[in-house]
Protein backbone atom coordinates (compact mmCIF):
# COMPACT_ATOMS: atom_id res chain seq x y z
CA UNK A 1 0.00 0.00 0.00
CA UNK A 2 1.20 3.54 -0.77
CA UNK A 3 2.62 5.48 2.18
CA UNK A 4 0.31 8.24 3.36
CA UNK A 5 0.87 11.94 3.97
CA UNK A 6 -1.60 13.73 6.25
CA UNK A 7 -2.44 17.32 5.30
CA UNK A 8 -4.02 19.06 8.29
CA UNK A 9 -5.56 22.53 8.19
CA UNK A 10 -6.56 24.69 11.14
CA UNK A 11 -9.06 27.44 11.88
CA UNK A 12 -10.63 29.59 9.18
CA UNK A 13 -8.87 27.82 6.33
CA UNK A 14 -12.32 26.60 5.24
CA UNK A 15 -12.92 30.28 4.32
CA UNK A 16 -10.12 30.42 1.73
CA UNK A 17 -11.21 31.84 -1.61
CA UNK A 18 -14.13 33.70 -0.05
CA UNK A 19 -12.25 36.69 1.41
CA UNK A 20 -8.80 38.31 1.32
CA UNK A 21 -7.63 36.87 -2.04
CA UNK A 22 -4.77 39.39 -1.96
CA UNK A 23 -3.34 37.64 1.10
CA UNK A 24 -4.36 34.00 0.65
CA UNK A 25 -5.12 33.66 -3.08
CA UNK A 26 -8.40 32.92 -4.83
CA UNK A 27 -8.47 29.14 -4.49
CA UNK A 28 -10.87 27.41 -2.14
CA UNK A 29 -9.67 24.76 0.30
CA UNK A 30 -11.42 22.15 -1.81
CA UNK A 31 -9.44 23.26 -4.89
CA UNK A 32 -6.24 23.18 -2.84
CA UNK A 33 -7.16 19.67 -1.68
CA UNK A 34 -7.37 18.46 -5.31
CA UNK A 35 -4.01 20.01 -6.18
CA UNK A 36 -2.26 18.58 -3.13
CA UNK A 37 -3.80 15.11 -3.49
CA UNK A 38 -2.78 14.96 -7.17
CA UNK A 39 0.73 16.14 -6.32
CA UNK A 40 1.11 13.57 -3.53
CA UNK A 41 -0.18 10.82 -5.83
CA UNK A 42 2.33 11.84 -8.53
CA UNK A 43 5.08 11.28 -5.95
CA UNK A 44 3.67 7.89 -4.96
CA UNK A 45 1.82 8.92 -1.79
CA UNK A 46 -1.72 8.52 -0.64
CA UNK A 47 -3.17 11.46 1.24
CA UNK A 48 -5.52 12.29 4.08
CA UNK A 49 -6.72 15.92 3.82
CA UNK A 50 -8.57 17.48 6.76
CA UNK A 51 -9.61 20.86 8.18
CA UNK A 52 -10.89 21.77 11.63
CA UNK A 53 -11.63 24.95 13.53
CA UNK A 54 -11.04 23.10 16.83
CA UNK A 55 -7.64 22.76 18.47
CA UNK A 56 -8.35 19.39 20.13
CA UNK A 57 -9.47 17.84 16.87
CA UNK A 58 -6.15 18.86 15.29
CA UNK A 59 -4.37 17.25 18.27
CA UNK A 60 -6.34 14.01 17.67
CA UNK A 61 -5.48 14.07 13.97
CA UNK A 62 -1.76 14.55 14.70
CA UNK A 63 -1.89 11.47 16.95
CA UNK A 64 -3.67 9.55 14.15
CA UNK A 65 -0.79 10.44 11.80
CA UNK A 66 1.82 8.84 14.09
CA UNK A 67 2.63 5.98 11.73
CA UNK A 68 2.31 7.94 8.48
CA UNK A 69 5.01 9.18 6.09
CA UNK A 70 4.55 12.67 7.50
CA UNK A 71 2.28 15.61 8.15
CA UNK A 72 1.84 18.88 6.28
CA UNK A 73 0.38 21.19 8.93
CA UNK A 74 -1.13 24.60 8.33
CA UNK A 75 -2.28 25.29 11.87
CA UNK A 76 -3.71 28.70 10.96
CA UNK A 77 -3.80 31.08 13.91
CA UNK A 78 -3.12 28.22 16.36
CA UNK A 79 0.42 28.40 14.98
CA UNK A 80 0.94 31.49 17.10
CA UNK A 81 -0.69 30.32 20.34
CA UNK A 82 -0.95 26.57 20.74
CA UNK A 83 1.16 24.68 23.25
CA UNK A 84 -1.20 21.71 22.72
CA UNK A 85 -0.15 21.44 19.07
CA UNK A 86 3.52 21.84 20.08
CA UNK A 87 3.15 18.92 22.52
CA UNK A 88 1.19 16.81 20.01
CA UNK A 89 3.95 17.19 17.40
CA UNK A 90 6.53 16.16 20.01
CA UNK A 91 4.42 13.12 20.87
CA UNK A 92 4.44 11.53 17.39
CA UNK A 93 7.08 9.82 15.28
CA UNK A 94 6.01 11.23 11.91
CA UNK A 95 7.88 14.32 10.66
CA UNK A 96 5.76 17.48 10.55
CA UNK A 97 6.29 20.28 8.03
CA UNK A 98 4.73 23.58 9.13
CA UNK A 99 3.28 25.46 6.17
CA UNK A 100 1.74 28.87 5.60
CA UNK A 101 0.22 30.28 2.45
CA UNK A 102 1.29 33.82 3.30
CA UNK A 103 4.72 35.04 4.38
CA UNK A 104 3.93 35.41 8.07
CA UNK A 105 7.19 37.33 8.64
CA UNK A 106 6.07 40.09 6.28
CA UNK A 107 2.84 40.53 8.26
CA UNK A 108 1.79 41.64 11.76
CA UNK A 109 4.28 41.06 14.60
CA UNK A 110 1.91 38.60 16.31
CA UNK A 111 2.33 36.26 13.32
CA UNK A 112 6.14 36.23 13.64
CA UNK A 113 6.12 33.82 16.57
CA UNK A 114 5.24 30.14 16.14
CA UNK A 115 4.83 27.67 19.00
CA UNK A 116 5.22 24.78 16.55
CA UNK A 117 8.32 25.76 14.52
CA UNK A 118 10.76 24.51 17.20
CA UNK A 119 9.27 21.00 17.00
CA UNK A 120 8.50 20.93 13.27
CA UNK A 121 10.97 19.19 10.93
CA UNK A 122 10.90 22.33 8.82
CA UNK A 123 8.88 25.39 7.88
CA UNK A 124 7.66 26.61 4.46
CA UNK A 125 5.81 29.89 4.11
CA UNK A 126 4.96 32.58 1.62
CA UNK A 127 4.54 30.59 -1.59
CA UNK A 128 0.76 30.56 -1.73
CA UNK A 129 -0.71 27.14 -2.53
CA UNK A 130 2.76 26.00 -3.61
CA UNK A 131 3.76 25.99 0.07
CA UNK A 132 1.71 22.78 0.41
CA UNK A 133 3.27 21.17 -2.68
CA UNK A 134 6.78 22.07 -1.52
CA UNK A 135 5.99 20.50 1.86
CA UNK A 136 4.92 17.24 0.18
CA UNK A 137 8.21 17.27 -1.76
CA UNK A 138 10.14 17.92 1.47
CA UNK A 139 8.54 14.90 3.14
CA UNK A 140 9.26 12.76 0.07
CA UNK A 141 12.90 13.93 0.09
CA UNK A 142 13.25 12.98 3.76
CA UNK A 143 12.32 9.40 2.91
CA UNK A 144 14.79 9.07 0.05
CA UNK A 145 17.66 10.80 1.92
O1 LIG B 1 -0.68 32.05 5.79
C1 LIG B 1 -1.21 31.09 6.34
O2 LIG B 1 -1.36 29.99 5.78
C2 LIG B 1 -1.78 31.25 7.76
O3 LIG B 1 -1.55 30.02 8.46
C3 LIG B 1 -3.27 31.52 7.58
C4 LIG B 1 -4.00 31.83 8.88
C5 LIG B 1 -3.27 32.91 9.68
O4 LIG B 1 -3.88 33.07 10.95
C6 LIG B 1 -1.78 32.57 9.88
O5 LIG B 1 -1.16 33.63 10.56
C7 LIG B 1 -1.09 32.37 8.54
C8 LIG B 1 -5.43 32.33 8.56
C9 LIG B 1 -6.32 31.24 7.96
C10 LIG B 1 -7.31 31.74 6.96
O6 LIG B 1 -7.95 32.94 7.34
C11 LIG B 1 -8.80 33.56 6.44
C12 LIG B 1 -9.13 34.87 6.72
C13 LIG B 1 -9.94 35.58 5.87
C14 LIG B 1 -10.43 34.97 4.72
C15 LIG B 1 -10.11 33.65 4.44
C16 LIG B 1 -9.30 32.95 5.30
Query: If you average the pLDDT, what whole number results?
Result: 97
CATH superfamily: Dehydroquinase, class II
The helix-and-strand class reads: alpha/beta
* CA-atom Rg in angstroms: 14 Å
Residue share in helix? 25-40%
* Lateral arrangement of strands in the main beta sheet: 2-1-3-4-5
- End-to-end span in angstroms? 21 Å
| Ligands and ions found | ligand CA2
Shape: globular
Instruction: Give the tally of β-strands.
Output: 5
Low-confidence stretches: none
Q: Can you give a write-up of this model?
A:
It contains five helices and five strands; from the N terminus they run E-H-H-E-H-E-H-E-E-H. It has 145 residues and is α/β, with parallel strands linked by helices. The chain has a single domain (4-144), classed as Rossmann fold (3-Layer(aba) Sandwich), CATH 3.40.50.9100. A five-stranded parallel β-sheet has the order 2-1-3-4-5, with helices on both faces. Helix 4 links the parallel strand 3 (70-74) and strand 4. Helix 3 packs parallel to helix 4. It is globular and about 40 Å long. Residues 12-13, 15-16, 18-20, 24, 74, 76-77, 79, 100-102, 104, 111 line the site of ligand CA2.
Task: Please give the structural blueprint.
Blueprint: E1 4-9, H1 21-24, H2 29-42, E2 46-51, H3 55-64, E3 70-74, H4 83-90, E4 96-100, E5 122-125, H5 130-144
Parallel strand pairs: 1-2, 1-3, 3-4, 4-5
Bound molecules: ligand CA2.
Amino acid sequence: MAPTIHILNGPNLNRLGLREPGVYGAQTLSEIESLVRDHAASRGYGSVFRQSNHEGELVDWLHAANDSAGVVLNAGAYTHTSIALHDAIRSIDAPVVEVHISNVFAREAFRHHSTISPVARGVICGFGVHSYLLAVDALAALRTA
